[in-house]
Specification:
binds NADP nicotinamide-adenine-dinucleotide phosphate; seven-stranded parallel beta sheet
Length: 287
Amino acid sequence: MMKNVVITGVSSGIGLAIMQSFINAGFKVFGSVRKKEDALRLKQEFGDSYEPMFFDLTDDQAIKDEATRVAQIVGHQGIQLLVNSGGISGGDAIMHVSIDYMKHIYDVNTLGLMRVSQAFFPLLKISSANTSVQTKIVNISSGAGRAVRPYLGPYAATKHAVEAISDAMRRELMRYGIDVIIIEPGPIQTKIWDKNKAKVGQYKYQDTDYAVLFQKIDKGVEGMEHNALPASAVGDLVLKAYVSKKPRTRYLIAPHRWMFWLAIHVLSDRFLDRMFKKQFDKIEFSK
Ligand SMILES: NC(=O)c1ccc[n+]([C@@H]2O[C@H](COP(=O)([O-])OP(=O)(O)OC[C@H]3O[C@@H](n4cnc5c(N)ncnc54)[C@H](OP(=O)(O)O)[C@@H]3O)[C@@H](O)[C@H]2O)c1
């Protein structure tokens, strides 16, 4: 039996890398995009192994419609894996970020994940009735879902919510034999960095006390980008987590992983406060 995987946000980055890993391993992938040209490009590259789905993560009806269409294609096999990867990031200061943007980033990163999970749940349930195959959900959270860098607060808030939702999901879906796994990437080489830089580059904090810092903050982004891991590392990890009979509930994947581990599990809040202050003072007062 060919296994079916649904992945959100396959036009680039981590979603695309996960799709590549699963197609190489012989799976059929239903991957969401928003632009026709992305679907055409991916169809050309992957042929019959790839079936495009079109939706924005904020569009309830479009997601439901695609779930109905996928149900007709997969029939009694259902889907064996759902990967929630689509999302956005952005550098923002908590006291100045607009409430409209806060609503939007939650709508995409957190509620989008819930919309897709709810819409495709019936197809996961069909698969889980067959106990000889593994049925799982993998949610792409972030290191920011566990430890919060300043000026990434709104993004970190959406990923903390993803962590909580994933824990609830896992505990509520045990009765169906559907496992839920959280992936927490640190810096990974994807377009998310450029998209972030472009936004910061608009110098949107010019009337605030953060003006100078936000003018230079791209330097901090470049520092993280410099060490970033290739997206294929996340693709390989998700495949490993899917095939594993005893996967962990959370996988942290990052350059200098031990630093993230220390920040999450060992170092005190006050220590981290001082560390981040030093780091961002250095950026703000640099020539
Ligand atoms: N890169 C990192 O360092 C890193 C670290 C930790 C976690 N993550 C997480 O990894 C996931 C993938 O990000 P990435 O780094 O691979 O970035 P990316 O290359 O920008 O990919 C993001 C994907 O999400 C899609 N997307 C964005 N907004 C959407 C919306 N409103 N509706 C539907 N699709 C939407 C994009 O589609 P379009 O092309 O149509 O915009 C794209 O396919 C995100 O959840 C991100 O938070 C990334």
